[in-house]
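re the bet — no i am not wrong, look at it urself. input seq straight from the record:
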Amino acid sequence: MHPFHLAFSVTDLEATRQFYIGKLGCAQGRESVGKWLDFSLFGHQMSAHLRAEAPVTSSGAVDGDSVPIPHFGVVLDIASFDQLAAKLDADADTDWEMRPKRRMVGEPGEQATMFVRDPSGNCLEFKAFADKAALFAS
């Protein structure tokens, strides 16, 4: 699979660095001091660009849960998901939108999911499928 690139806005570059690199363990890439910061989110190129305004979000319904729109994230394997969930759960400062849970249990597309917000209010979803082959199952 090829890595994707996502450029998104943040309101504080240092808080962004602390969250993605310090808290999530992302590797830092290039940066333009005071303007933008690149990092690797599980192998995907992310570019956080400084903007004065916070992102605007709404919500949608998925399997009976209200989920933030827009959001972005990564599909992990179950072991990596559980490890990240434990790490985030142990940090009292984690801004949970939805704590780790399993959804669609016993159905095609069974998955673990969790949502957190970064310091700028961007919402990230981390998920893991019981069967990786079901990622695009219909």
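see?? The helical segments are 13-23, 78-89. told u. also DSSP finds two helices and ten strands in the chain. so pay up
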